[in-house]
Amino acid sequence: MVKTNSDLLELDIPANSTFFELIRLMAAGLGARMNFTYDHIEDLKLGLEEVCAKIIETKAISDIHIKFKVFSDRLQVCFEYLPLTFMEKEKARGLILKAIVDRVVWEVDEERCSICLTKYTTKRVNR
After folding, report:
1. How far from 99 is each of 1, 6, 58, 63, CA to CA, in Å?
2. What is the pLDDT of residues 93-114, one digit of tens each?
3. Distance in angstroms (rounded) separating the CA atoms of residues 25 and 98
4. What's the predicted TM-score (pTM) here?
């Protein structure tokens, strides 16, 4: 098994559009530190905005837990502890997100789901 080192940053914010700028700013700052191109940073921010907008529409949660995982070749942003109803409604939209970011992964347990968006520092062929 290959061990992959990463740095982890976590953010807990109210599910309120007023605070979503913090998510975009954090992603943009991390992307800039990782030498992402301007277009890569904008794509990532657009993907995050899509997820945030849908979280607000569901009105099912009061707080959002976000994990930013920084690897040597990619940035992964995970929205955790979302209600299962969020995934059921939004999984079809994954195709839209995949056009913006490099990888979209849904994780599910008995009561909650998570969505992780990954953007690589260089363009990858396999999604």
Report:
1. 30, 25, 23, 27
2. 555 787 889 998 888 887 788 8
3. 21
4. 0.85
